[in-house]
Design goal:
alpha+beta, Nuclear Transport Factor 2, Chain: A, 6-stranded mixed sheet, 6 strands
Length: 171
Amino acid sequence: MNQKVDQLMALADRLSVQDLVIKYAKARDTTDAALYREIFSEDAVIASGAGKVLSNGLDAILSKVANDRVRFNPASQPGVVSYAIMRHDISNIDISLRGDAAQSDYYVNTLAYNETAKRPEIISCARNVDEYVKRNGRWWIVKSTLNFGWENEEMGKALRLGPYTPPEYRR
């Protein structure tokens, strides 16, 4: 009987972590600060695959979200779900549980609409490696490492993303 309970708890934990991955993509798509608050711990870190810390702590993450909202979702209204100009497609989610800690590895294809070509295009293909902790019965992202590949340099330049991000939006 205890083995079945353990298996059910592990399944519930795995689904909770998977939900964080999916909510993270939706948070990126909607530039919704409230959604970020639901998934990131106060001490969370976002880093590049090269080890550079991009955001240290929830306040720094929310500051970038505010910038992203201005840059990529300017028509958004408070309290209304609004999607930005990019979409984040998540696949191949691999989750490893270790008690109250977990790690996931998954792919993120970021798409944006190319006005010149009049079609959506992939702007980047990334592999995220996220770390989680369960605190007071709830899972949180404590670190997200973004391993970017900027495959579409033309779109990066047009949208001023990645290596083309203007200095005022870099932290």
